[in-house]
Amino acid sequence: MDINQLGEKLLKDDILYDKIPNSERLEFINYAIKQGFNAADISLKNGLNEEKPKKYIQEKVKVNYKKESPPVPIFSEAKLKNEIINLYTEDIKNGVIDGIEIEPEKINFEKVYDVFLLHEYYHILEEKKYKHKNDKKEIVVFEIFKWKIKRSIKTLSEISAHAYARRITGLPIDYIKKTI
Ligand SMILES: [Zn+2]
């Protein structure tokens, strides 16, 4: 699945999907992808190594590789305020083994963790970028007289995070395959 298809799929799951005018959906997806790609280009320019992104990220934020399962079913998380990334390695491992059709011995799990790490690191970059600005894409969900209730579309941030990781790793499926 390429990043555009992935974007469409993710956006469809957003609770605000029906509120986005049909004509603007593609524009939203492209916008989100561009955000992720741009951020990736900046990280690469600043010294992030495509093969070993871990080193760069660990210099910027605290990363915990946890063997135990989290209290909620997630694979990874970014604690935005404290700039901490938690990766639940055993859960990721099992999830990947169940989810893709590659024999486990052919998977480089360190690289699998990198993909999750990059994804979460994007969320931290995004948080920093938007802390004082308000240019996240928003749509009006509710309008009465002069009041407009606006909500940002959470999924766009997910699309950007995927785009960020992909710009750096290429296709994740290829990236995680062991080269023997
Ligand atoms: Zn995410």
Q: What is the alpha-carbon Rg in Å? A: 17 Å
Count of separate structural domains:
1
Helical content stands at 40-55%
Round the mean pLDDT to the nearest integer and report it: 90
Report the sheet with the most strands, covering strand number, pairing sense and barrel closure. Answer: 3 strands, mixed
Cα distance spanning the termini: 25 Å
Strand order of the largest sheet: 1-3-2
Which hetero ligands occur in this complex? zinc ion
Strand content: 15-25%
Shape annotation: globular
Class by helix and strand content?
A: alpha+beta
Low-confidence stretches: none
Helix run count: 7
Question: What string gives the helices and strands in order?
Answer: HHHEEEHHEEHH
Q: Give the tally of β-strands.
A: 5
Give an overview of the whole structure.
The protein is of the alpha+beta class and 180 residues long. The protein has one domain (3-175). It has helices at residues 3-12, 22-45, 53-60, 89-99, 109-130, 154-169, 172-175; strands at residues 62-66, 76-79, 84-88, 138-144, 147-152. Strands 1-3-2 form a three-stranded mixed β-sheet. A hairpin with a 4-residue loop joins strand 2 and strand 3. Helix 1 (3-12) runs antiparallel to helix 6 (154-169), helix 2 (22-45) packs across helix 6 (154-169) and helix 5 crosses helix 6. The longest helix has 24 residues, at 22-45. The mean pLDDT is 90. It binds zinc ion. Residues 119, 123, 158, 161 line the site of zinc ion (ZN).
